[in-house]
Description:
Blueprint: E1 2-7, E2 21-25, E3 30-33, H1 39-45, E4 53-57, H2 63-66, H3 69-78, E5 86-91, H4 94-105, E6 118-123, E7 128-131, E8 134-140, E9 150-156, E10 159-163, H5 172-177, E11 182-186, H6 200-210, E12 215-218, H7 222-226, E13 236-237, E14 243-245
Amino acid sequence: MRFTFLGCGDAFGSDGRFNTCFHVTADDGDFLIDCGASAMIALRRFAVEPNAIRTIVLSHLHGDHFGGLPFFLLDAQFYSKRTGPLTVVGPEGTQARVEAPMDVFFSGSSGVSRRFDTEFVEIAPGRTTNVNNLAVTGFEGVHPCGAPPLALRIACGGKTIAYTGDTEWVEGLVEAGAHADLFVAETLFYERKVRYHLDYASLAENLGRIAPRRLALTHMGPDMLENRHRIPEDTVLAEDGLQIDL
């Protein structure tokens, strides 16, 4: 299994990074975790075949995490000529929130008949949903976005990937990330405490309880980027295009 950071930036592209979009290549089918506004550009930049992606799992419904989906769906119809089914997994309200910008950006596009089946699976925190050989569990965070924001725990092919999504520190992150093969954590700030986002200091205080096999930091804002030299060497600092084999 290979995990690739197609985009690891914050909402505003600090340090020239693409919005959040992670690509996982697995024997049971490729999938994306989040599909931020710049996702199609990143897919092209890093030569990822969109039609190989069976599933897109969304942590929450802010544009830098799901805003690339309208473009992904339209590319699938008109450029990539997709025929295989696509499943989009996300919190309650995902389908409506995806279709709304489609009709703003390209009027009437959400209702166009596609050559491929598109299924939206909306999940609730605290339950595991099995879809396309993925076991997806959501844990509610604190990050106002019009729907329950989720930290994600995804089991596939004997490996577990955990991802905080965007949230301030919540106890659910301990269970979400426990002993994960890869725990990907947003760290917008280094030690400054702000509402709705995670800082590295809060994460570090709790890492002993989470005990992931590997930790990667993503969604770093200017403050965190300025302090990245202070992060232990065994922690992965995400870069666009960085690959991790699990």
